[in-house]
Amino acid sequence: MKSVLRIEDLKVYYKTEKGLVRAVDGVSIDLCERESLGIVGESGCGKTTMGYALLRILPSNAVLEGSIKLNGLDLSSLDQKQMEKVRGAKISMIFQDPMTSLNPVMKVRDHFIETIQTHKPEISEEEAERMTANMLRAVGIEPTRMNEYPFQFSGGMRQRVMIALSLVLNPVVVIADEPTTSLDVIVQAQILDLLKSLREKFNMSLILITHDLGVVAELADRVGVMYAGHLVEIGESRDIYYSPKHPYTEALLKSIPNTNIEDKELVYIPGGPPDLADPPKGCRFEPRCPKAMPICSRKEPGVYQVGRSFVKCWLYGEESHVSASKGQ
Fold it and tell me: What phi-psi label fits residue 85: left (phi over 0), alpha (psi between -120 and 50 degrees) or beta?
């Protein structure tokens, strides 16, 4: 399949009083047409920072390096005015909390009209309203509610509004950052089903950022696992869930609570993630890894192809080494 988004050696460092914090450190990914890619990992692993980097909405103390190409257009080389024309129209984001993303004193209708006319000023208000009605209908909201304010909607309905707003200009890539975090289980399932059907209807590619492995299993064709700023494993969902290669991926899957009431033991990963202002010299998971070898503490591993997966781990030897972007 054709690649629509190519991320090569992406680095995002934050300037702090402690020095540079390496939030994302050399990540390379290809996203294909109509593909759904899940990005998972512990809090602080860099997954949301990566999402913000793709849209170029990083804070002023961030340093961005590497290449982000959307259908050949290098987003990392654009200035902010050029990026404003791309953001929302070609690549958009569904944020965690819709109540902090929607203006509480603007009607839902006005959010849509502002977004549409900012990118397409030639579109009349009447046509923008028609587009708004169609998108709200597509996410299961009655178009008559466009004249209401965000606070008049439930949490699930606000998230549907945010999804509609992110899709109204038919972007090529949509990034969903923890889209179900604040919702109850029933509404979560509805939002996941909605994202699945909209991806097929609008032929978009989806990047799903989450710490919830259950959410990823529901939606993703492929899964990328991040740890301490590194992409430590990426592969097809089935391979990640049933045949994980990296020790961190294995530990992450084992730490999912077991619904079997007879199994009361809670498995966890001992220790904590490293300080990204002063990360380990070798593998960043080495201090917590049950399979660590002497080389793991001395030298950072390369990326190795293991079956259909790509793994950043010394367990798989240098002879199978490939670049992080090749074949993904």
Answer: alpha
**Nearest Cα to Cα of residue 37 among 3, 68, 9, 10:** 3
Place of tokens 């990360």: 279
Q: What's the CA gap between 171 and 175, in Å, rounded?
A: 10
Q: Is the pLDDT of residue 256 over 90?
A: no
Helices marked H in the chain — which ranges? 47-55, 80-86, 98-101, 108-119, 125-138, 155-167, 185-202, 213-219, 237-242, 247-254, 294-298
Domains (range + CATH), the chain = 3-90+171-327 (3.40.50.300)
Model pLDDT for residues 197-239, shown as the tens digit of each residue: 999 999 999 999 998 887 888 889 999 999 999 999 999 999 9
User: Is-contact 283 313, C-beta < 8 A?
Assistant: yes
SS3 of residue 210 by DSSP: strand
3-state secondary structure of 196: helix
Determine the 3-state secondary structure of 253 from DSSP: helix
Taking residue 67's Cβ as centre, other Cβ atoms within 10 Å add up to: 15
**Which phi and psi (to 5°) does residue 65 adopt?**
-135, 160
Alpha helix locations (H) across 66-148?
A: 80-86, 98-101, 108-119, 125-138
* Residues 247, 243: Cα–Cα separation, whole Å: 11
- 52-111 tens-digit pLDDT: 999 999 999 999 999 999 999 999 999 999 999 999 999 999 988 887 889 999 999 999
- Collapsing DSSP states into helix, strand and coil, what is residue 236? strand
- What the block records as the tokens of 64 is 């961005």
Residues 124-166 have pLDDT tens digits of: 999 999 999 999 999 999 999 999 999 999 989 999 999 999 9
Interior angle at CA 236, CA 233 and CA 241, nearest 5: 75
